[in-house]
Amino acid sequence: MSSTEKVLHPGKRPPPLVETKTLETLLNILNSSKNRTLEEIYGEFCVKFASCTHFRIGSIVWMLLVDNLLRREERASAFYILSNLYRGESTINPCMPLLLDILEVENNNAEKQLLHVLVSNENRKEIVGS
Hints:
Elements: H1 3-8, H2 20-30, H3 38-48, H4 54-66, H5 72-84, H6 96-105, H7 109-120, H8 124-128
């Protein structure tokens, strides 16, 4: 046990970043893309996760993307969720740097096109099927 762990949690392990049930719910949402629009998937995300948890859950989505732990269709849902986490709020979306980084290095043309639309906020209705 490190000295930091001893100070913060004497005799205990630090709490996990995410509970197993929360991760399962998130992965089920990301995996539910068949016959659903990205907006419907985002709507389910908002129903399942309170807005006060969006930054924490968004951080988990970010890690799943960066570590390449998502399939292509799950990645599209993850991109959409991250690009919309702060929609309608007067704050800057902290996920935009990640999306821009992925856009810069992405080799898959379909993903690159989706990311371009999401970060530029143009033609959103065309891409989400609303």
